[in-house]
Amino acid sequence: MRLPSLAAFPAAAVLLMLPGTAHGLAPVAAATPSISRPSPLTAPLPEYRFTGAGFDACTAPPLEALSVWRTASPYGAVNIYSSGGQRGCAQPRLTPQWVAEARAMGWKLVPTHVGLQAPCAEREDKPLRIDPARAEEQGGREADEAAAALRTLGLGAGSPVYLDMEAYPGDDAECSRAVVDFTVGWTEALHAAGYRAGFYSSLNSGIADIVDAARSGRAPLPDAIWYARWDRNPTTTGQPGLPDDLWTGHQRIHQYRGSADETYGGVTLNIDPDQLDGPVAGGARGADG
Fold it and tell me: What is the pLDDT of residue 45?
């Protein structure tokens, strides 16, 4: 994702997180924002978190690149643009086989969905917008699409999928209401389908509106947030505009710098770096998470 702190950004496809002795995948209890009470899932489900550094790129990389980076780079998980009609890049490699092979290498996966955008969004490349009169219904329909894509890719119940809501002007009350309504519908439908709801946006627009919704008691809200603030500070706490008493249970990802090339093992990828302390996907039921 390419998201300047005050401007619109192109979406991205790949997020890679740093493994290490204090970093990695571990089962955790069901995590929900402390300020909301999401509807219960339909059955006890596995849930995982990953803590460490990461990055996103615009399309799922070749498996050959992942193989090199798995040992030569400091990263340990890959975010995939799993669904959505307004993804910024084609995903010719993103198949169930790609997912299975990436997971067999040891990569952890963080799915992302990009669909309808805020009614006031200023993005010519993503022209489809939320209808404020039908926002909650539309959010539910997008969630159904996202859940179906996770099942197709072999990602199990309890996995998260992050809604990509690109930056939009923050001074339009009707637009803000539509985004919140859409996100409530998204979250409710994903919970009904047995998946976790995530939300990605700029700290100055979408995240600000979700924080306000949390303070007002709106529910259900997403189980995890992924926020863009290019302050070059790889942390998930102490952020102006994101109080530390919200989404505190390993429920955050921070995109902290913009696009740059990095090379490991002779393989170069253009990336936006992130710091992650949040949920990642597990395998299908019966598979190793």
Answer: 43
